[in-house]
Amino acid sequence: MKALKHLNKYFKKYWLKLFLGVLITIIARIFSLVMPSYVSKSINVIEKLTTNDIDKATANDLLLQYILVIIGTALLSALFTFLMRQTIINVSRYIEYDLKNEVFDHYQILSLDFYKRNRIGDLMNRISEDVTQVRMYGGPAIMYGMQTLTLFVCLIPLMFMKAPTIAFYTLVPLPILSVLIYQISKIIHKRSTKVQEYLSTLSTFAQESFSGVAVIKAYGLEPKINADVAQLATEGKDTSMDLAKVNAWFFPLMILLIGVSNIFVIYIGGKQYLAGEVSLGIIAEFILYVNMLTWPVAVVGWLTSIVQRAEASQKRINEFLEVTPTITNTTTTPTPINGKIEFKNVSFTYPDTGIKALNNISFVLEPGKTMAILGKTGSGKSTILDLVARLYDVDSGKILIDDKPIKEINLDSLRNSIGAVPQDAFLFSDTIANNIRFGKEDATQEEIEAKAKQAVVHKNIMGFAKKYDTILGERGITLSGGQKQRVSIARALIKEPKIYLFDDCLSAVDTETEEKILKNLKKAAQQTTTLIVSHRVSSAKNADTIIIMENGSIKQQGSHNELNSVNGYYKQLYEDQLTEKD
Ligand SMILES: Nc1ncnc2c1ncn2[C@@H]1O[C@H](COP(=O)(O)OP(=O)(O)OP(=O)(O)O)[C@@H](O)[C@H]1O
């Protein structure tokens, strides 16, 4: 129960609703207890009528009275049961809502390394499946727990008061039922976890097969994929059958034990009736009690397993909630950003892989200037951009923004001043306009179109039937690689930031379009410090400075003319790409 303590703050928040819910539960139970004794009374009246101890008219009056009481209390019990669900189950929904928001908000503040360490499926599972398990504790467990407790406290003394011997024999099988249900619930839990795991494997497999359908078709892999699915389906069928088998025991067992209790009532009650110790009505009353008690007793076993599951789930949720972001904001006061970037002997090793991506890097980039970063793949180019956005903190050396250590700069101010276009442009399943607007929430249609024109994607967009309202992604059309890159560029441009970080974002556009975009960028980015990572000299040659990266170090540094006048990587690349172009 240690992990579930986390929920206490929510119980405190909703204490009034919970208190009302508990009160209503007690009232609903008390009303439901009236019915059996009036059934008993009615049977006694009928018995007296048959033995002529009472006249017909009085019997009619009494029976009508009792029936009205039974109907009235049943209606009241139903009304309060409805209210009980409306309060307690609603509280559990509020708690579920709050907890999901808490987990999601926490996910948002966690640094990139957290997402590298954990699988997306796991993050999704904890916020959906695990929170659902915890909700069962916050709502149904409390509701059924209270219901059972009230029933036990009121009914068991009442039964012993009315007929102690029958009460004793009736109650004997019930704890056995509770233990059995607990054991079955445990097995059901284990097997349903297996089914859940299987379902998640199947959906991951299906998702990958659908996403990779082009590769599957190109390689003629359909028969293999079909065979894999068939095998997965067989495993799935077996696990589901295992679950169905144990599920099938649940109700027969309950019915068996109710039957045993009923036999006891009839046998012991019958004997006592013959001995004149109890009335016929008491036997009927006890049979009703047995039926009223069966579900709550079974619930005790079920509740135990719900609480165990909730505890396990909350523990998993807490594990993530306890993770602290590695990158934190050190100041709450906004820092104005001008755009000067300086790296002083910066070295950086990725903590998860231990790969040393940067080794003693130094450069200064004045505000409004452009620097191109070239070099072979894996040489550390993207890492430089990630460090400017402070997605990671450096191991040694210093990064200064406007001559101030990056750690002392307000993180929100820094990130708000950056317009980044990552290597693999990510667009949301939304309209093109909204994808661009992501860079500036209140952007007008005119602004969006102006930036799309600068990114040389406006014409493409106008070619779609719904133009800027075209939906992208799973629900809509798929853009080509180059179109995606240009929409992402428009998104960065609309932000009008102080620093642009372009990570190889023109790799999928032809050189002619590249040239147009670069020209537009030059105009748009006159006041903006720009870092362009590229594999093409054409993207780099107009930059104020170019650095050539090799194995995490700067191999060459200078302007196009400077680098082109000495033998080295840059000159070679320039000549190779010129020949390619020709
Ligand atoms: N998130 C990460 N976690 C661990 N290692 C990483 C991560 N990102 C990059 N690396 C490693 O760091 C090194 C530098 O990577 P980086 O992405 O900066 O290279 P790059 O020059 O941008 O390459 P490319 O031109 O292929 O994009 C590589 O060896 C890479 O494997």
Automatic annotation (TrEMBL):
GO terms for molecular function: ABC-type oligopeptide transporter activity; ATP binding; ATP hydrolysis activity. Signal peptide: none annotated. One of its GO terms (cellular component) is plasma membrane. It comes from the Bacteria. Residues 19-309 form the ABC transmembrane type-1 domain. The keyword Phosphoprotein does not apply. Residues 341-576 form the ABC transporter domain. It is a multi-pass membrane protein. It is found in: Cell membrane. Pfam families: ABC_membrane, ABC_tran. The chain crosses the membrane at residues 14-35, 63-83, 141-160, 166-184, 249-270, 282-307. InterPro entries: AAA+_ATPase (IPR003593), ABC1_TM_dom (IPR011527), ABC1_TM_sf (IPR036640), ABC_transporter-like_ATP-bd (IPR003439), ABC_transporter-like_CS (IPR017871), P-loop_NTPase (IPR027417), Type_1_exporter (IPR039421). Keywords: ATP-binding, Cell membrane, Membrane, Nucleotide-binding, Transmembrane, Transmembrane helix, Transport. The keyword Glycoprotein does not apply. This is ABC transporter.
